[in-house]
Amino acid sequence: MLFYDDFIKKINSTNIILKENYTYGLNFTKRIVWLGTGIPIASIGFFQIWVLTENNSSLVGYLLSLIMVLFGLYNLKMAFSYKTKIDVTNKTITNKKLIIELDKVKLVELRKMVAPGSKKLEACLDIITHDKKQIILPLIMNNKLEFTLVIKEITGKNFNIIKD
pLDDT of 94-112, one tens digit each? Predict the structure, then answer.
């Protein structure tokens, strides 16, 4: 993967001066994908509900339309609610689902892999804690180079880059 090799070169050649806090949102392409599925599905669901109310249709049609609307709204919510925060003073990564304490990390590896819930190969951080938990963070945030450099600076010698 050409982009991964370039990404590694940029990591090795760039230095960063740490701030107190960093916040990262979803990158542009992922946001477009979630918006591109959420808006049409929600619109079709709303239109179908309108058609069903005009024709006095059955409950099953309303339920299917409601499911479409909810799925579309869920995709829209996911497009705008993704946030990953790094607190440098407390050495923590905070996401909506988890909190990772970087001072209790045994190993952080940057590697290209298929992340859980994904279908394509992408750059991920594979984090292993001292209590033997494995956490995989796909780099789908808007400034993944800065994110990786901050993690590398905080974890120091526990950060490895896998080039395979």
Answer: 988 888 888 888 999 998 8
